[in-house]
Design brief:
alpha+beta, 2 domains, 37% strand, SH3 type barrels, disordered N terminus, 33% helix
Length: 162
C-alpha cells in the first residue's frame, strides 16, 4: 500500500515539474495537480487559473501543449486521462494569494470559532477582513481552517435573464 501512495505522489510531482513551465508560459497559474484513481480510471487533473478567469479556448490551447509535453518527456505511469480545469465559481481558497484574488466576493470560512460567511473585504498574510450581516470582522490567518467562495445562485439566475 505504501508503495502505491509513493508512486502516486511521484507521478504528481513529476507531472507538476513537467507542466508548470507550459502552464506559466501560457499566462496561467498552476493552482493544483492531482493524480489518482477514480473508479477504474487514472486521472491526471490540473487546475489552472488567472486573474479574470480562464475561457475554454485557453483551456483547450494549454491542454494540447501539456499533452504534447507529457508525451515528449515520456510521462507514462500507465494509462491515464488528462483533465485541465479551473477552480470554478465556488472554489477553495488555500492561501493569501487566493484570498487576495477573491476580495469583493462572497466567501464562507470555517474557523476555530465556527463558520463565517460574508463579503471578503481585504486579505494579507496575517489575516482577512470579512463583512458579515453583523459588521466587519478581522480573522487571523492562523484561525482559518478552510475557506471557499460561494455564489448566491438565486441572484445569479435572476441576472441571467432566464
Amino acid at each position: 500500500m505504501r508503495g502505491d501512495v509513493e508512486s502516486r505522489e511521484e507521478g504528481r510531482v513529476d507531472a507538476e515539474t513537467l507542466v508548470r513551465p507550459v502552464v506559466e508560459g501560457a499566462g496561467l497559474e498552476l493552482v493544483d495537480v492531482t493524480f489518482g484513481r477514480e473508479g477504474d480510471r487514472r486521472i491526471l487533473r490540473l487546475t489552472v487559473d488567472r486573474d479574470g478567469g480562464v475561457d475554454l479556448d485557453a483551456i483547450s490551447h494549454v491542454s494540447e501543449k501539456i499533452s504534447r509535453r507529457l508525451d515528449l518527456e515520456g510521462f507514462e505511469p500507465g494509462p491515464y486521462q488528462l483533465e485541465v480545469t479551473t477552480p470554478g465559481l465556488e472554489r477553495p481558497l488555500r492561501g493569501p494569494r487566493d484570498y487576495r484574488r477573491a476580495v469583493g466576493e462572497r466567501v464562507r470560512l470555517k474557523t476555530d470559532e465556527g463558520v463565517i460567511e460574508g463579503q471578503l473585504r481585504g486579505a494579507d498574510d496575517e489575516g482577512i477582513r470579512i463583512l458579515t450581516p453583523h459588521g466587519e470582522r478581522a480573522v487571523p490567518s492562523a484561525a482559518v481552517r478552510s475557506g471557499r467562495t460561494v455564489v448566491d445562485w438565486d441572484a445569479e439566475l435572476k441576472g441571467s435573464g432566464r
